[in-house]
Amino acid sequence: xxxxxxxxxxxxxxxxxxxxxxxxxxxxxxxxxxxxxxxxxxxxxxxxxxxxxxxxxxxxxxxxxxxxxxxxxxxxxxxxxxxxxxxxxxxxxxxxxxxxxxxxxxxxxxxxxxxxxxxxxxxxxxxxxxxxxxxxxxxxxxxxxxxxxxxxxxxxxxxxxxxxxxxxxxxxxxxxxxxxxxxxxxxxxxxxxxxxxxxxxxxxxxxxxxxxxxxxxxxxxxxxxxxxxxxxxxxxxxxxxxxxxxxxxxxxxxxxxxxxxxxxxxxxxxxxxxxxxxxxxxxxxxxxxxxxxxxxxxxxxxxxxxxxxxxxxxxxxxxxxxxxxxxxxxxxxxxxxxxxxxxxxxxxxxxxxxxxxxxxxxx
Length: 363
Known about the structure:
Distance between the termini: 56 Å
CATH topology of the largest domain: Cytochrome Bc1 Complex, Chain D, domain 2
Number of domains: 2
Shape: globular
Strand content: under 5%
Helix content: 25-40%
Strand order of the largest sheet: 1-2
CATH superfamily of the largest domain: Cytochrome c-like domain
Order of helices and strands: HHHHHHHHEHEHHH
CATH class of the largest domain: Mainly Alpha
Number of helices: 12
Mean pLDDT: 93
Largest sheet: 2 strands, antiparallel
Number of strands: 2
């Protein structure tokens, strides 16, 4: 009888602890490092120059996507990167200044996040971040944005086996660090591509454009000519050229005169007075989805933006020389010209970007 009792107790003990062990996550439960490359689709664009120390992988991009939408990155768990970079607005924010976790507004308008892999001149409006990975950690620590410390974020993520597993898949170790977070978010943001606008379709089949859109395109790419007004264009491609409609430069576009400048822009980074009031020239792709406009969101509509370049440029010591040349006469655009130009700008919208599942919230 005594032997039977001992055997029975042993059986019960093994059953209980066996069930417990089965319910406990294990590091070797099929979770392994996976370096399978992520196949970036970019249409007719030239290949991007992805950093050799952070190639895109399926698991790295997946982890970056998780982090981009993860509210644990904020102090109170109420916000994520995606709170101010909304997919439906080309990963920008239609608020003039995004509101952070403390209820305070940011200092500049939220920039769109797409085609980052083709940017070659730093990030943020003033270029203070060298690479996307550097940019990705800034908002977490900014008191006007997510207002959290990297140590706290690492601790919160480390308490979740789901994240430890995904860091293992992406980087070969369960250890979570801010450096790995930055690399993963860089991979996800580099994976966001916008190359399927009506303009891209026009390049294949010109019949998709209306007459107004075609004329707006002509105005966009035609240079300003004060001596021949009938042949003069809006000269937009001077700053917004190439396949991505930008020039990888920082420029003063005449928003304020010297005495009225309150945000010195690039100068704060370089300490060079010649960079005063210069800001990153952003892509015009998806511009219809990303109001308000300029670094301070002062213009609400594309018509206001066109009118600024047509007749509203302010003289200043660092105003771009090409823009300075137009100040005497303005661009001489008629009301129809302005309508046509705005209609062309709307063709740069990539409707598929707004709903593409691989860029959406994974939770």
